[in-house]
Amino acid sequence: MSADVIKEFLVSLSFSKDESGYRKTMDSIESLSKQALALGVALEAAAITSIGVVHRIASGFESLYYASSRVNASAANINAFKYAIANLGGTAEGALSSLENFSRKLREAPGNEALLRQWGVQTRDAQGRMRDSTEMMKDLAHSQRF
Question: How many of the other CB atoms lie within 10 Å of CB of 107?
Answer without folding.
Answer: 13
